[in-house]
Amino acid sequence: MTTLQSHPDKLSKDQQPAFSCADIVFNLPLKDAFTYEIPLHFNGMIKKGMRVFVPFGRRRITGYVVDISNRQKKNILLKAIEEVPDSEPVISKELLSLTRWIADYYHSSWGEAIKAALPAGLDDTSLDELHLTEKGLKVLKEGNPSSKATYILQTLHLKKKLTSRQLERSLKKKYSAGTLASLKRDELVKVENKIKRSFLKYKYEKIIRTAKNLPKKEEIEKLLKRSPKQRAVYEFLRKGEASTSDLNNKIPGSSQTIKKLLDKNIVEIFTSKKEQESTHSNRVPKQTVEKPLQMNKEQEECYRAVKQSIEKSVFQPYLLHGVTGSGKTEIY
User: Fold this and answer.
1) Rounded mean pLDDT of 156-165?
2) What span, in angstroms and rounded, lies between the C-alpha atoms of 257 and 103?
């Protein structure tokens, strides 16, 4: 079981005061949601639809918040949410509702449905990496261990760090889970937990704009009368908001000017959160626009039938029956 955590902002009905707990689902074939405690330092921050990083068994994995409450069963010690990577929900209320329906209809877990609906690369995961201890290295050099243990120790000595799965793939039939467990128990092999972060990162920018409650026009004229640089910044921002870096490029040395305009209540600053391009996204090949599909007579009939159901907002399962190459996939 786990918990959510929040900020000292205003609380909505998705956020609870004092003791709070959150129901979290995972990308695992498990029907039930798991309850976690929301630590005080996350109070007011966590909302439905946000991702959280929590302990789960011996691992730490990403989960999705589907409910928040201040109820707790007595005498049950809840695990706490460790990290909150989002400042706002990544799953909308509509998407939560849709994925819940998908999970019920297709007999999957809610977490699996959510995972399928989100872009790849959003989740943090934890990995257990194996490496040789000094004791293990000494035993390997002395040549005392059994043959299966020697294979494991030699591979870890050569590769430095491997997960259990990578070790199994390297050794194939020479791998023995029982032997590995004995090596860990005898402190010849050590396990370290490493968090593999998602490649989706964010950057924060300070944005400047004219104040929502500007002084009257005559008052602004009076405030800027003897300040040509302040007037230049003000006129620039009247065309639209700008980041501090962009503004400084257009009007060099505007940092002090901004402070003075802030004191006069002519401009305001807020922080904007944006996705940062990653090296992963740069590796994705550019998509080319395909020509519109030219449907044959049978495809046109199938398409019209499906389209009518969609336009009437009526859920209706359809079976597309046809030989290989008849065009079923294009309709799908």
Assistant:
1) 82
2) 55
